[in-house]
């Protein structure tokens, strides 16, 4: 199959860039705000593991950052240009991801328009994970490893000892960088090594000595890179602590069948399993012909991470996102396979079934859809620009000035992050650092915010509150504050209300 001209991929890239602009402009994920503050403190010389100074009721443990390098980048963005800087960092992170995905889709042999359709479906299913998150940057690095290793394996002509040394140094750099980006590289690094091994096995024209050199060199380098990361051997314990603290209280660690999640996430995990299964079937069918078409190695490398993650998604929503984002290039290929079959039936000398219709045959080829895609992108561009114009400015920005200086805040965890960044003089009770707070505080906060238990002694020490007026879970607490003569409403805006103690 001949590759389409590079300019044919401009429309998919622009469409995915538009999605990135919207997601970077309207930030649903609230971690980037407190991460930017952590980054600012890191840049000022604070240790990565430190006693918490953000809360007026801290827990008896150290605040340990799971994504120190990402926090530093966000901190630099904020220090350089405020919300515009955060927007630029978030947009860049998502553009890198979509660009790598499109490059892998093209390498697999996908065509531009079917690739766009397949990737868009996957990204919309995993939309909460398509945001300025350290995990997305880490996953971009993983996909880039697959892309780079594929090229290196195919072009390797140097002596095995040189290949081993080069692979080891590359693995060391990637493992070290990934560990600083996010602790998830503790698991992504072994998956990256297996992906490289699969790529070597799928390249029969590469002799055995070079395959061994690439596999061993990369494995040793990745392992060493993780060990010399910010936490070394402690990384596994920290990862377990994050999981235990977030279990049962943070959406990403809940199973798709949990109350309130099934309607949204059960179909999504089924889609992830279906995509992984279809990709695996395609690998099995094409593996025997890998000598003539080494693209099957790239698909197999993606399945190395995508298939286990899709199965793990049965126990945790976050793994569903990992599976879908990893297999986005595979979705592009499968959409192309489907589109090819449709075109073949539409252009047959004697069309059958629905393809007997001239209208169906006309819309079964790519040219009309290119016109439609371009027109839709042009028509939606004002909305894209409008979303981007918010420049990652959260709704809390409209009400933070209502908080008294130095007050002790009770708020939902999501609102606490922007407050920590915009009003460092205000201390919070809890925020979205679920791993720092631990399971007990996370559950206690959930009971308080939903109004199930307002007798927590620490709550009596708060003298300001910030809640969403349209957020049903915090409705009982808002009603309790309204009914308490010791509190008064200070104002609100953008769906938020502020109370201060009289």
Secondary-structure topology with pairs:
Layout: H1 10-25, H2 31-43, E1 49-50, E2 63-64, H3 68-108, H4 112-125, H5 134-155, H6 160-181, H7 185-201, H8 208-227, H9 235-246, H10 262-287, H11 295-312, H12 317-326, H13 328-346, H14 358-362, H15 366-389, E3 408-411, H16 413-422, E4 427-428, H17 434-449, E5 464-468, H18 475-483, E6 487-493, E7 496-501
Parallel strand pairs: 3-4, 3-5
Antiparallel strand pairs: 1-2, 5-7, 6-7
Helix pairs in contact: 1-3, 1-4, 1-15, 2-3, 2-16, 3-4, 3-5, 3-13, 4-13, 5-7, 5-11, 6-7, 6-8, 7-8, 7-11, 9-17, 10-11, 10-12, 11-12
Overall description:
The protein has 502 residues and is mostly helical. It has 18 helices and 7 strands. It has helices at residues 10-25, 31-43, 68-108, 112-125, 134-155, 160-181, 185-201, 208-227, 235-246, 262-287, 295-312, 317-326, 328-346, 358-362, 366-389, 413-422, 434-449, 475-483; strands spanning 49-50, 63-64, 408-411, 427-428, 464-468, 487-493, 496-501. The strands form 2 sheets. It has a 5-stranded mixed sheet with strand order 4-3-5-7-6, sandwiched between helices. A two-stranded antiparallel ribbon has the order 1-2. The radius of gyration is 25 Å and the shape is globular. It starts with 9 loop residues before the first helix and ends with a strand. The mean pLDDT is 88.
